[in-house]
Amino acid sequence: MPAHSEPESGGPAGSGSSTAQGAQTAVAVQQTAGADPYFPEHGDPRYRVHRYELALDYRPGPNRLSGTARINAIAGRAPLAEFVLNLGDFKIGRVRVDGRQPHYTHRGGRLRVRPAKPVRAGAAFTVEVHWSGNPKPVNSPWGGLGWEELEDGALVASQPIGAPSWYPCNDRPADKASYQISITTPSAYAVVAGGRLLTRTTKASTTTWVYEQSAPTSSYLVGLSIGKYQTVLLGDPGLGGVPQHGHIPAHLLPEFSRDFARQPQMMELFQELFGPYPFDEYAVVVTEEELDVPVEAQGLSLFGANHVDGARGSERLVAHELAHQWFGNSVSIADWRHIWLNEGFAKYAEWLWSERSGGRTAQQLAAAAHRLLVSLPQDLRLADPGRKSMFDDRLYERGGLVLHAVRCALGDIAFFRMLRAWGQLHRGGTVTTAAFASHVARFATEPVDELFEAWVYGAALPPLPGAPTRAAG
Ligand SMILES: [Zn+2]
Q1: What's the CA gap between 149 and 136, in Å, rounded?
Q2: What's the pLDDT band for 33 if we cut at 50, 70, 90?
Q3: pTM to 2 decimals?
Q4: Which of 36, 139, 154, 339 is the most exposed place for a label (fewest CB within 10 A)?
Q5: What does DSSP say about strands 103-107 and 110-114: parallel, antiparallel, or unpaired?
Q6: Ligand 1 center to residue 240 CA distance, Å?
Q7: What CATH number belongs to 332-457?
Q8: In angstroms, what is the span from residue 149 Cα to ligand 1's centroid?
């Protein structure tokens, strides 16, 4: 969910330039065929990226960013006469495709590149882009997304369309790539990005941090935080567990230490229930600022100062963000219509953590969610909520209830087997609602069509599912 959410202002996604001539119109139509239904201006399905190498220089005072991107991509089934990268309002210094100068235009957040020679169908190609300017958030119905200048540093939380606020990308969740990110900034600041810190080199007054994220990563999940942090280790990595670090303003350390103390236990529980943690490490950042909601990124979650209180007041959100590493980040959605597969799963993980850590049971929490939904309009279809409702609370609660209904139908043993298989089969990949329905069917002894029809494709709220069987997970 976007860190700063605002009420939806309505209206369709930007319709783009209407001055296109014949050839461009044909291209636009071709692109629309596979474009994201909610954000047709973001992402270009005519090619895919398999690696981004970003070298950035950032000065917090003037909020000045300059960068070089080396993008390794592969053309789709048709020759690529032109392609689009999403990139915000920056000055473009240089663009190359396979070392040659292309023709390009940069308008409305879209860098449209026409290589000197079309890229052959299925061929690999490399794009180089230099850009610079003052990064600012991408406007959205949920407020600004992406790069945000803070009082003293910067933060990137892009879900769903904020990534072009700081780097050129094929901005669609299904186009997952590996990343190497190098950031040079004044040495007083710490840079936290998802992934493994390869090197940290200090020269004169600046430090260069190089992170590698080798797991396939959606553009919106590339997270970043630049600030003055103290770094602490959570749990005991000596036991062969997942390395977990916290990066916190020093004055919030006492509260943080209590609020995140049980995260290593969560990590253990979720590995038992969902399968092995999908990445090499996990980092959490608490910013000096407040955030409406915490935000997940690949191997990283970002919390606001308001999410630590020293009384575990936001522990369910600690569980929620951790669960996204499996559901949303490792197993990603093919397009934004399927967002309940991220949020419903993370919601249900909150309930599972509560149940297994001595809090209310999933059944009790499901009943509470159901009571809430009964009192609200029943016009939301999980399978395609519409752009306007993709972050609606009802989607989260009802999404959690779907998982609970499936658990009640399958029984605990088959349900958790099904969940682990889902994570394993689609690790690093992308999924849809239809794929999940057929996956569940393979673990069920009775047909689950009606369950999905009622809970996922229908709008009216079905009755609360019964108590799960007592068998151990
Ligand atoms: Zn979430």
Answers
A1: 7
A2: low
A3: 0.92
A4: 139
A5: antiparallel
A6: 28
A7: 1.10.390.10
A8: 23
Distance between CA atoms of residues 320 and 345, nearest Å: 9
Residues 145 and 160: beta-carbon distance below 8 Å: yes
pLDDT at 466: 84
Average pLDDT over all residues of the chain: 92
Which residues are bridge partners to 339 per DSSP? none
Burial of 91 (0-12, 13-18, 19+ CB in 10 A): exposed
Quote the pLDDT of residue 223.
97
Cα 299 from Cα 284, distance rounded (Å): 9
Average pLDDT over residues 164-190: 98
CA of 111 to the centre of ligand 1 (A): 30
CA of 352 to the centre of ligand 1 (A): 15
- Ligand 1 centroid–CA 159 distance in Å is 10
Ligand 1 center to 330 CA (angstroms): 14
Query: Domains of the chain: which residue ranges?
Result: 332-457
Beta bridge partners of 245: 233, 283
Cα distance between residue 456 and residue 443, in whole Å: 18
Q: 20 pLDDT band (50/70/90 cuts)?
A: very low
Compute, in angstroms, the gap from residue 345 CA to the centroid of ligand 1.
9
